[in-house]
Amino acid sequence: MILRSMLFVPGDSDKKLGKADSFKADALILDLEDAVAPGRKPIAREMVPDFLRARPKDARKVQLWVRINPLGTPDAVEDLRAIVAADPDGIIVPKVSGPADLQRLSYLLDAFEAAAGLPKGNIQFMPVATEVAPAPFALGDYAGANLSRLYGLTWGAEDLSSAIGASTNLGPDGVWTHTYQMVRSLTLLGAHAAGVEAVDTVYVNIADEEGLAASCRQARSEGFTGRIAIHPSQIPIINEGFMPSADDVAFAQRVVDAFAAEPGIGALQLDGKMLDMPHLVQAKKTLAAHAAFGEA
Ligand code: COA
Ligand code: MG
Description:
Layout: E1 5-10, H1 14-19, E2 27-31, H2 41-53, E3 63-67, H3 74-83, E4 90-93, H4 99-116, E5 124-127, E6 152-154, H5 158-163, H6 178-194, E7 197-200, H7 209-222, E8 226-229, H8 234-241, H9 246-261, E9 268-270, E10 273-275, H10 277-293
Parallel strand pairs: 1-2, 1-8, 2-3, 3-4, 4-5, 6-7, 7-8
Antiparallel strand pairs: 9-10
The site of coenzyme A has 15 residues, from strand 1 and helix 1.
Protein backbone atom coordinates (compact mmCIF):
# COMPACT_ATOMS: atom_id res chain seq x y z
CA MET A 1 0.00 0.00 0.00
CA ILE A 2 1.28 3.46 -0.94
CA LEU A 3 1.38 5.99 1.87
CA ARG A 4 0.72 9.55 0.74
CA SER A 5 0.91 11.32 4.10
CA MET A 6 2.89 10.23 7.15
CA LEU A 7 2.32 12.48 10.20
CA PHE A 8 4.94 12.81 12.91
CA VAL A 9 3.48 12.71 16.42
CA PRO A 10 5.88 13.26 19.36
CA GLY A 11 5.89 9.97 21.30
CA ASP A 12 5.83 11.60 24.74
CA SER A 13 2.88 13.94 24.17
CA ASP A 14 -0.33 12.72 25.80
CA LYS A 15 -2.22 15.51 24.13
CA LYS A 16 -0.97 14.89 20.58
CA LEU A 17 -1.23 11.11 20.83
CA GLY A 18 -4.73 11.61 22.20
CA LYS A 19 -5.79 13.50 19.07
CA ALA A 20 -4.09 11.21 16.60
CA ASP A 21 -7.03 8.86 15.97
CA SER A 22 -8.99 11.69 14.38
CA PHE A 23 -6.40 12.39 11.65
CA LYS A 24 -6.81 10.99 8.14
CA ALA A 25 -3.11 10.52 7.47
CA ASP A 26 -2.21 7.28 5.68
CA ALA A 27 0.31 6.66 8.47
CA LEU A 28 1.35 8.14 11.79
CA ILE A 29 5.00 8.21 12.80
CA LEU A 30 5.19 8.01 16.58
CA ASP A 31 8.49 9.70 17.33
CA LEU A 32 11.06 8.52 19.85
CA GLU A 33 13.92 10.59 18.37
CA ASP A 34 14.35 14.34 17.91
CA ALA A 35 10.85 15.45 18.96
CA VAL A 36 11.42 13.87 22.37
CA ALA A 37 13.84 15.49 24.86
CA PRO A 38 16.54 13.12 26.15
CA GLY A 39 15.05 13.02 29.66
CA ARG A 40 11.64 12.07 28.26
CA LYS A 41 12.79 9.09 26.16
CA PRO A 42 12.01 6.46 28.83
CA ILE A 43 8.45 7.70 29.20
CA ALA A 44 7.98 7.86 25.40
CA ARG A 45 9.22 4.27 25.25
CA GLU A 46 6.27 3.31 27.45
CA MET A 47 3.65 5.53 25.83
CA VAL A 48 4.32 4.50 22.23
CA PRO A 49 3.98 0.72 22.81
CA ASP A 50 0.82 1.39 24.85
CA PHE A 51 -0.58 3.36 21.92
CA LEU A 52 0.28 0.52 19.51
CA ARG A 53 -1.11 -2.24 21.72
CA ALA A 54 -4.39 -0.37 22.12
CA ARG A 55 -4.70 -0.50 18.30
CA PRO A 56 -3.90 -4.06 17.22
CA LYS A 57 -2.73 -4.38 13.63
CA ASP A 58 -5.91 -5.96 12.29
CA ALA A 59 -8.02 -3.15 13.82
CA ARG A 60 -5.88 -0.21 12.62
CA LYS A 61 -7.43 2.36 10.34
CA VAL A 62 -4.07 3.93 9.53
CA GLN A 63 -0.60 2.47 9.56
CA LEU A 64 1.37 3.09 12.74
CA TRP A 65 5.10 3.63 12.27
CA VAL A 66 7.71 4.53 14.89
CA ARG A 67 10.84 6.64 14.45
CA ILE A 68 13.57 5.11 16.58
CA ASN A 69 16.83 6.72 17.68
CA PRO A 70 19.91 6.40 15.45
CA LEU A 71 21.24 2.87 15.00
CA GLY A 72 24.37 2.15 16.97
CA THR A 73 23.18 4.07 20.05
CA PRO A 74 21.96 2.39 23.25
CA ASP A 75 18.69 4.30 22.82
CA ALA A 76 18.01 2.48 19.54
CA VAL A 77 18.29 -0.93 21.18
CA GLU A 78 15.99 0.18 24.01
CA ASP A 79 13.53 1.49 21.42
CA LEU A 80 13.44 -1.81 19.53
CA ARG A 81 13.10 -3.80 22.73
CA ALA A 82 10.10 -1.65 23.68
CA ILE A 83 8.24 -1.39 20.39
CA VAL A 84 8.70 -4.51 18.27
CA ALA A 85 6.50 -6.68 20.48
CA ALA A 86 3.75 -4.05 20.12
CA ASP A 87 3.79 -4.74 16.36
CA PRO A 88 4.29 -1.43 14.54
CA ASP A 89 3.66 -1.41 10.77
CA GLY A 90 7.02 0.15 10.12
CA ILE A 91 10.09 1.85 11.52
CA ILE A 92 11.61 5.13 10.38
CA VAL A 93 15.36 4.97 10.79
CA PRO A 94 17.15 8.32 11.16
CA LYS A 95 20.76 9.18 10.34
CA VAL A 96 21.38 6.03 8.31
CA SER A 97 24.73 5.86 6.46
CA GLY A 98 23.73 3.22 3.91
CA PRO A 99 22.09 -0.15 3.31
CA ALA A 100 24.54 -2.08 5.54
CA ASP A 101 22.99 -0.30 8.55
CA LEU A 102 19.59 -1.58 7.49
CA GLN A 103 20.86 -5.11 6.92
CA ARG A 104 21.97 -5.18 10.56
CA LEU A 105 18.63 -3.74 11.65
CA SER A 106 16.88 -6.46 9.69
CA TYR A 107 18.71 -9.15 11.67
CA LEU A 108 17.78 -7.43 14.93
CA LEU A 109 14.14 -7.24 13.85
CA ASP A 110 14.18 -10.94 12.91
CA ALA A 111 15.32 -11.72 16.46
CA PHE A 112 12.90 -9.34 18.21
CA GLU A 113 9.98 -10.56 16.07
CA ALA A 114 10.79 -14.18 16.86
CA ALA A 115 11.06 -13.41 20.57
CA ALA A 116 7.65 -11.73 20.47
CA GLY A 117 6.05 -14.60 18.56
CA LEU A 118 5.37 -12.37 15.55
CA PRO A 119 5.71 -13.52 11.94
CA LYS A 120 9.17 -12.80 10.56
CA GLY A 121 9.57 -9.89 8.18
CA ASN A 122 6.23 -8.08 8.56
CA ILE A 123 7.67 -4.90 10.05
CA GLN A 124 8.83 -2.60 7.23
CA PHE A 125 11.37 0.18 7.46
CA MET A 126 12.31 3.41 5.73
CA PRO A 127 15.61 5.22 6.28
CA VAL A 128 16.02 8.97 6.38
CA ALA A 129 18.81 8.43 3.91
CA THR A 130 20.60 11.82 3.72
CA GLU A 131 21.09 13.05 7.29
CA VAL A 132 24.81 12.32 7.70
CA ALA A 133 27.62 13.31 5.34
CA PRO A 134 28.50 9.82 4.00
CA ALA A 135 24.85 8.89 3.37
CA PRO A 136 24.26 10.54 -0.03
CA PHE A 137 27.13 8.50 -1.52
CA ALA A 138 25.22 5.30 -0.68
CA LEU A 139 21.87 6.29 -2.20
CA GLY A 140 22.49 4.13 -5.27
CA ASP A 141 23.36 1.10 -3.15
CA TYR A 142 19.84 0.36 -1.85
CA ALA A 143 19.21 -1.16 -5.28
CA GLY A 144 20.51 -4.71 -5.10
CA ALA A 145 20.86 -4.64 -1.31
CA ASN A 146 18.04 -7.18 -1.07
CA LEU A 147 16.27 -5.48 1.84
CA SER A 148 12.84 -7.09 1.74
CA ARG A 149 11.57 -4.83 4.53
CA LEU A 150 12.42 -1.64 2.65
CA TYR A 151 9.26 0.44 2.01
CA GLY A 152 10.97 3.48 0.56
CA LEU A 153 13.62 6.15 0.97
CA THR A 154 13.08 9.58 2.43
CA TRP A 155 15.46 12.46 2.95
CA GLY A 156 16.05 15.24 5.46
CA ALA A 157 17.79 18.59 5.19
CA GLU A 158 18.00 19.84 8.77
CA ASP A 159 20.28 17.19 10.23
CA LEU A 160 22.45 17.19 7.10
CA SER A 161 23.05 20.93 7.48
CA SER A 162 24.16 20.48 11.04
CA ALA A 163 26.32 17.46 10.08
CA ILE A 164 28.24 19.55 7.54
CA GLY A 165 28.48 22.76 9.57
CA ALA A 166 26.11 24.69 7.30
CA SER A 167 24.34 27.68 8.79
CA THR A 168 21.54 27.45 6.23
CA ASN A 169 20.12 25.06 3.66
CA LEU A 170 18.13 27.71 1.79
CA GLY A 171 19.28 30.35 -0.66
CA PRO A 172 18.17 34.01 -0.49
CA ASP A 173 15.22 33.02 -2.73
CA GLY A 174 13.99 30.51 -0.11
CA VAL A 175 14.81 27.56 -2.39
CA TRP A 176 17.01 24.61 -1.26
CA THR A 177 20.65 25.28 -2.06
CA HIS A 178 22.42 22.97 -4.46
CA THR A 179 23.55 20.38 -1.92
CA TYR A 180 19.97 19.74 -0.75
CA GLN A 181 18.49 19.70 -4.25
CA MET A 182 21.16 17.18 -5.18
CA VAL A 183 20.49 14.82 -2.27
CA ARG A 184 16.74 15.11 -2.87
CA SER A 185 17.21 14.06 -6.50
CA LEU A 186 19.55 11.24 -5.52
CA THR A 187 16.97 10.00 -3.02
CA LEU A 188 14.37 9.99 -5.78
CA LEU A 189 16.67 8.10 -8.14
CA GLY A 190 17.95 5.72 -5.46
CA ALA A 191 14.40 4.80 -4.46
CA HIS A 192 13.34 4.09 -8.03
CA ALA A 193 16.55 2.18 -8.70
CA ALA A 194 15.67 -0.01 -5.71
CA GLY A 195 12.03 -0.34 -6.81
CA VAL A 196 10.68 1.31 -3.64
CA GLU A 197 8.76 4.50 -2.86
CA ALA A 198 10.36 7.96 -2.82
CA VAL A 199 8.95 10.02 0.06
CA ASP A 200 9.54 13.77 0.14
CA THR A 201 10.71 15.57 3.26
CA VAL A 202 8.82 17.82 5.67
CA TYR A 203 7.53 21.26 4.69
CA VAL A 204 8.39 23.26 7.78
CA ASN A 205 6.35 26.39 7.05
CA ILE A 206 3.09 25.11 8.54
CA ALA A 207 1.18 28.31 7.81
CA ASP A 208 1.96 28.25 4.07
CA GLU A 209 -0.78 25.90 2.84
CA GLU A 210 -0.65 27.08 -0.78
CA GLY A 211 3.10 26.61 -0.89
CA LEU A 212 2.74 23.07 0.48
CA ALA A 213 0.05 22.21 -2.09
CA ALA A 214 2.20 23.45 -4.97
CA SER A 215 5.26 21.69 -3.61
CA CYS A 216 3.37 18.36 -3.30
CA ARG A 217 2.06 18.58 -6.87
CA GLN A 218 5.58 19.30 -8.05
CA ALA A 219 7.00 16.39 -6.04
CA ARG A 220 4.39 13.97 -7.38
CA SER A 221 5.11 15.01 -10.95
CA GLU A 222 8.79 14.31 -10.31
CA GLY A 223 8.15 10.77 -9.06
CA PHE A 224 7.67 11.07 -5.29
CA THR A 225 4.62 9.16 -4.02
CA GLY A 226 4.22 10.67 -0.56
CA ARG A 227 5.45 13.13 2.00
CA ILE A 228 6.12 13.48 5.71
CA ALA A 229 3.78 15.83 7.61
CA ILE A 230 4.48 17.64 10.87
CA HIS A 231 1.09 19.24 11.56
CA PRO A 232 -2.44 17.84 11.17
CA SER A 233 -3.40 20.74 8.87
CA GLN A 234 -0.91 19.40 6.31
CA ILE A 235 -2.59 15.98 5.96
CA PRO A 236 -5.46 16.77 3.56
CA ILE A 237 -3.17 18.95 1.45
CA ILE A 238 -0.58 16.19 1.13
CA ASN A 239 -3.19 13.49 0.48
CA GLU A 240 -4.68 15.53 -2.30
CA GLY A 241 -1.30 16.52 -3.69
CA PHE A 242 -0.26 12.90 -4.16
CA MET A 243 -3.46 11.73 -5.83
CA PRO A 244 -3.64 11.76 -9.62
CA SER A 245 -5.76 14.62 -10.97
CA ALA A 246 -8.79 13.91 -13.18
CA ASP A 247 -6.75 15.00 -16.22
CA ASP A 248 -3.90 12.64 -15.28
CA VAL A 249 -6.33 9.72 -14.94
CA ALA A 250 -8.10 10.46 -18.22
CA PHE A 251 -4.79 10.70 -20.09
CA ALA A 252 -3.44 7.50 -18.47
CA GLN A 253 -6.58 5.64 -19.53
CA ARG A 254 -6.14 6.87 -23.11
CA VAL A 255 -2.52 5.67 -23.12
CA VAL A 256 -3.49 2.22 -21.84
CA ASP A 257 -6.35 2.03 -24.38
CA ALA A 258 -4.08 3.09 -27.24
CA PHE A 259 -1.59 0.30 -26.50
CA ALA A 260 -4.42 -2.21 -25.97
CA ALA A 261 -5.79 -1.33 -29.41
CA GLU A 262 -2.48 -2.22 -31.07
CA PRO A 263 -1.18 -5.37 -29.40
CA GLY A 264 2.47 -6.12 -30.09
CA ILE A 265 3.32 -2.49 -30.96
CA GLY A 266 6.06 -0.95 -28.79
CA ALA A 267 5.72 2.70 -29.83
CA LEU A 268 2.80 4.72 -31.11
CA GLN A 269 1.49 8.23 -31.49
CA LEU A 270 -1.11 10.00 -29.34
CA ASP A 271 -2.02 13.69 -29.73
CA GLY A 272 0.95 14.04 -32.07
CA LYS A 273 3.46 12.75 -29.47
CA MET A 274 5.47 9.55 -29.37
CA LEU A 275 4.61 7.05 -26.62
CA ASP A 276 6.59 3.95 -25.78
CA MET A 277 6.91 1.46 -22.92
CA PRO A 278 7.91 3.86 -20.11
CA HIS A 279 4.78 5.89 -20.86
CA LEU A 280 2.64 2.76 -20.61
CA VAL A 281 4.27 1.78 -17.29
CA GLN A 282 3.66 5.28 -15.92
CA ALA A 283 0.05 5.27 -17.12
CA LYS A 284 -0.58 1.96 -15.36
CA LYS A 285 0.92 3.37 -12.14
CA THR A 286 -1.38 6.39 -12.37
CA LEU A 287 -4.43 4.16 -12.79
CA ALA A 288 -3.32 1.96 -9.88
CA ALA A 289 -2.94 5.03 -7.64
CA HIS A 290 -6.35 6.25 -8.79
CA ALA A 291 -7.89 2.87 -7.97
CA ALA A 292 -6.33 3.00 -4.50
CA PHE A 293 -7.14 6.59 -3.56
CA GLY A 294 -9.72 8.02 -5.93
CA GLU A 295 -8.98 11.25 -7.70
CA ALA A 296 -8.01 14.71 -6.48
N1 COA B 1 0.36 15.42 16.10
C1 COA B 1 -0.76 15.46 16.84
N2 COA B 1 -1.38 16.60 17.19
C2 COA B 1 -0.81 17.75 16.79
C3 COA B 1 0.36 17.77 16.01
C4 COA B 1 0.96 16.54 15.68
N3 COA B 1 2.09 16.49 14.95
N4 COA B 1 0.69 19.03 15.76
C5 COA B 1 -0.26 19.81 16.34
N5 COA B 1 -1.16 19.03 16.96
C6 COA B 1 -2.35 19.47 17.67
C7 COA B 1 -1.98 20.43 18.79
O1 COA B 1 -1.78 19.72 19.98
C8 COA B 1 -3.19 21.33 18.85
O2 COA B 1 -4.19 20.69 19.60
P1 COA B 1 -5.35 21.57 20.36
O3 COA B 1 -6.15 22.22 19.26
O4 COA B 1 -6.13 20.54 21.12
O5 COA B 1 -4.63 22.54 21.20
C9 COA B 1 -3.67 21.38 17.41
O6 COA B 1 -3.15 20.21 16.76
C10 COA B 1 -3.22 22.62 16.69
O7 COA B 1 -1.81 22.71 16.83
P2 COA B 1 -1.03 24.11 16.83
O8 COA B 1 -1.41 24.90 18.05
O9 COA B 1 -1.25 24.75 15.51
O10 COA B 1 0.46 23.65 16.89
P3 COA B 1 1.39 23.48 18.19
O11 COA B 1 2.03 24.79 18.45
O12 COA B 1 0.64 22.81 19.29
O13 COA B 1 2.48 22.47 17.64
C11 COA B 1 4.38 21.70 16.48
C12 COA B 1 3.35 22.82 16.59
C13 COA B 1 5.28 21.96 15.29
C14 COA B 1 5.20 21.62 17.77
C15 COA B 1 3.59 20.38 16.29
O14 COA B 1 2.89 20.47 15.07
C16 COA B 1 4.40 19.11 16.32
O15 COA B 1 4.69 18.61 17.40
N6 COA B 1 4.77 18.55 15.15
C17 COA B 1 5.52 17.34 15.09
C18 COA B 1 6.96 17.60 15.44
C19 COA B 1 7.81 16.39 15.24
O16 COA B 1 7.42 15.28 15.56
N7 COA B 1 8.99 16.60 14.67
C20 COA B 1 9.88 15.53 14.41
C21 COA B 1 10.09 15.30 12.96
S1 COA B 1 10.66 16.69 12.05
MG1 MG C 1 16.31 15.02 13.04
